[in-house]
Amino acid sequence: MKFYNLLIKYRLWIGLLLAALGGYVNYTGSFWPAFPLYLVGLILIAGHIFFGPLRLIQEYMENGDVEGAEKILASVKFPNLLYKPIRSVYYTLKGNIAMMKEDFDGAESMMKKGLDLGMPMKEAEGASMLQMGMMYMQKNQLKQAESYIRGAIRKGLPDKENEAAAYLQMCSLMMNKREFRAAKDFFRKAKKLKPTTPQIVDQINQIEKYISRMPG
């Protein structure tokens, strides 16, 4: 895995080196001995242009190294040349980082670009829509928040933790609209999933203190 990550990190320079070496072999000898060097060099260069180094970001994101992740994204000089599903992930990651830095306008712009391109999996699209909804809640734009979170639930979410978070956000939105029966229904759905993320468990415990006293 480390070798593969190193190859991704340096494949543009390796590809250019192999292409240059192929040119030298072609000049001093003939085309056919240079052909394998040209071919491998071209594959590596094309891989960098059309797929980018996005695989390298996972480790940085898991470690909370936002600066390292941003450096990887900044190394993509021509994002419009990325293969369409990869380009969608690129913009979504930029949106995630913008959200972590509380740049909500930047996050909105990037994540909309990712969603417009279409996500490679429905669950990934659902997760992205959930993030958009939560961002709109931060901005107190509740109508847009509800639209995105409902869309996320329809598309499907990657795990029970995300699903529970979506139901709890809907519960909060329904309480704000004084639609208490719907709020209780979303709360039951969230609790039934038995999430383990501390923030979600704490939110369930906080809501449970007063939701039973609501009418409906």
Our count of domains comes out at 2
What name does the CATH topology of the largest domain carry?
Answer: Serine Threonine Protein Phosphatase 5, Tetratricopeptide repeat
Largest sheet: number of strands, sense, barrel closure? none
Provide the CATH superfamily of the largest domain: Tetratricopeptide repeat domain
Class of secondary structure makeup: mainly alpha
- What shape does the CA trace take? elongated
Strand element count: 0
Mean pLDDT: 91
Q: How many helix segments?
A: 11
State the distance separating the first and last CA atoms. Answer: 55 Å
Q: What is the string of helix and strand elements?
A: HHHHHHHHHHH
Task: Explain this structure.
With 216 residues, the chain is mainly alpha-helical. The chain has two domains: 1-51; 54-211, Tetratricopeptide repeat domain (Serine Threonine Protein Phosphatase 5, Tetratricopeptide repeat, Alpha Horseshoe), CATH 1.25.40. Helices cover 78% and strands 0% of the residues. The chain contains eleven helices and no strands. The chain has helices spanning 2-28, 31-51, 57-62, 66-74, 84-100, 104-117, 122-138, 142-155, 160-176, 180-192, 198-211. The protein is elongated and about 85 Å long. The protein starts with a helix and ends in a 5-residue tail after the last helix. The relative contact order is 0.06. The mean pLDDT is 91.
Break the fold down into its secondary structure elements and pairings.
Blueprint lengths: L1 H27 L2 H21 L5 H6 L3 H9 L9 H17 L3 H14 L4 H17 L3 H14 L4 H17 L3 H13 L5 H14 L5
